[in-house]
Each structure stands twice: as C-alpha cells, then as structure tokens.
C-alpha cells in the first residue's frame, strides 16, 4: 500500500530531486576528478538553505558508482537532514541487492507514495550489467495499476532512464529501450501530469501531450548538452525542486552550486 504523508489534498507539496550522485565506499572517491561525496554534501546544504521544509526527497538513480552498501549508507546519511521522507529508485550503476541491504526496515524503495493530492510512482528501469534501460512487464503493470487505482489524484512518474530523445547523439542509445511501451501505458491516463528522470546529467524541460518532461543536473559531474560524443562540461552540480499543487499544476526549477570550479580529468577514465 502507498504511504500517506502529512500534507492533505488541499495543500501544495514541495519535492526535491537528487540524482546521479555516483558515490563510492571511500569518502574520497572521485569521478573524472570530482569528489562525489563532497559535491553531494554541498548540493544538499544548498537545498536545505534554499528550500526550507521539504515534503519528499526523490533520488532517481545512480546513487552509487561502485554499488557498495557503504555508498548507499553515505547517501542516506548526507541526504536525510534535507528530508527524512524519501524514496529511491535504481539506475544503471546501482546494485539493487546492496541498495536493499542499506535500506532494510525502511520505505525508501517503496514504489508508490501518495502526498498531497498527488501520487508519485517510482519505476525500476535498470538492466543489470547494462547501461540502457528497460521496463520489464511487471514494471509496466505496476505503472498501469498505480495510476488506474487513483484516478482522483494527479500523477508524477519517476524513472532513471530518459524516455524521449534529449538532443545528445551519444546519449540517445543509452536511454529507455522500450519507451514506446512506456508511453502506451501513460497515454491512457490523463491524470499523469509529469515524468521525471536522471541519467543524462543535465536539465531537460519539455511538454509531450500535456505531460511535463523533466530531467535534472547530477549532484556531481555534468554532461554537455547537445554533444555528439561523451563530453563533460564545467557546469556546477545541482538539484531540482518541484512544487506540486492540488489542482495538478506544477512549478519547478533547477538550482546549482555557486562559485563552483571544476576541470574534468579525462585521464581518470572512471565513469
């Protein structure tokens, strides 16, 4: 059963999305020369300073780079002060067994949560050992069931992999491989208001059939928008906030670290 949170259906709710933190068991672990634990801490500190009372934290995959229990424990420790009410989903770098071990006796991996007048659905698009995503039949069934069982609510659907082209040639093949089947489900339900994902390490904001399509900067390294080949930009890490209103309206924005200086170290070659 979904977890009912404190805000009533008459109130708007504030969500924060953290994504693609790529943490290591070692707190000094770095990705392309960037210490990922430090950058996550800085992003969380900024979100706490800017957002105040957050109703739900969404972590949309690639929380860990090495898939270690210690990395998930670190993510939980760093992010919990921002909002104790959180939900996670796995990305292609994550290891689901270790993620489950680190979240035992919690609701962090529950796939459905009702908050305010909204239902949030978190899908597992991970294909173990592969970079692209795929929604297995049981995930598509979960999606259809969760939306159909709450026709009175507005719906936000979350996954790790991008279900539409995002404008970077090298990224397109590593998105959601069965996006057609995904949209075949969503297009049946007008109460779906938005789809939110990670994976692409850059912001994205478009509309498809009245559904808002959103992606978010990583809390560590950023991919250069519109690039033909793999390329890391010097843009700052960040997060996305979402204000979900009772009538189905959605306000959202991206916030990045200030005074951030980073030069990618391609010699590290550990992405």
UniProtKB/TrEMBL annotation:
User: Which Gene3D superfamilies does the record associate with it?
Assistant: 3.60.21.10
EC number of this enzyme: 3.1.4.53
SUPFAM superfamilies the record matches: Metallo-dependent phosphatases
Kindly give the Pfam families that the UniProt entry links to this protein.
Answer: Metallophos
Per its UniProt record, what CDD domains does this chain match?
Answer: MPP_GpdQ
Q: Return the InterPro entries for the record.
A: Calcineurin-like_PHP, CNP_phosphodiesterase-III, GpdQ/CpdA-like, Metallo-depent_PP-like
Q: Which residues form the Calcineurin-like phosphoesterase domain?
A: 16-203
Question: What UniProt keywords apply to this chain's record, in alphabetical order?
Answer: Hydrolase, Iron, Metal-binding
Q: Which GO terms describe its molecular function?
A: 3',5'-cyclic-AMP phosphodiesterase activity; metal ion binding
Q: Does the keyword Nucleotidyltransferase apply?
A: no
Q: Which NCBIfam families does the record match to this protein? A: PRK11148.1
Similarity-based family: Belongs to the cyclic nucleotide phosphodiesterase class-III family.
Q: What is this protein called?
A: 3',5'-cyclic-AMP phosphodiesterase
Provenance organism: Pseudomonas helleri
């Amino acid at each position: 059963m979904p977890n009912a949170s404190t805000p009533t259906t008459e109130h708007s709710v504030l969500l924060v999305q953290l994504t693609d933190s790529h943490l290591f068991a070692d707190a000094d672990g770095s990705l392309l020369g960037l210490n990922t634990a430090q950058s996550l801490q800085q992003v969380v500190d900024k979100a706490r300073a800017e957002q105040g009372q957050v109703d739900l934290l969404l972590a949309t995959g690639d929380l860990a780079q090495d898939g270690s229990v210690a990395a998930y424990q670190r993510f939980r420790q760093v992010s919990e002060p921002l909002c104790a009410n959180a939900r996670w989903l796995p990305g292609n770098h994550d290891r689901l067994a270790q993620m489950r071990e680190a979240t035992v006796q919690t609701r962090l991996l529950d796939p459905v949560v009702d908050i305010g007048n909204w239902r949030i659905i978190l899908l597992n698009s991970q294909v173990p050992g592969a970079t692209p995503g795929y929604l297995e039949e049981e995930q598509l069934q979960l999606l259809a069931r969760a939306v159909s069982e709450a026709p009175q609510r507005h719906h936000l659907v979350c996954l790790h992999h991008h279900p539409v082209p995002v404008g970077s040639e090298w990224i397109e093949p590593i998105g959601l491989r069965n996006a057609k089947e995904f949209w075949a489900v969503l297009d049946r339900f007008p109460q779906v208001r938005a789809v939110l994902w990670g994976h692409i390490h850059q912001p994205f904001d478009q509309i498809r059939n009245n559904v808002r399509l959103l992606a978010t900067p990583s809390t560590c390294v950023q991919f250069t928008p519109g690039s033909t080949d793999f390329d890391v930009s010097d843009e700052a890490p960040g997060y996305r906030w979402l204000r979900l209103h009772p009538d189905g309206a959605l306000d959202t924005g991206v916030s990045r670290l200030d005074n951030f200086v980073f030069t990618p170290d391609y010699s590290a070659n550990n992405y």
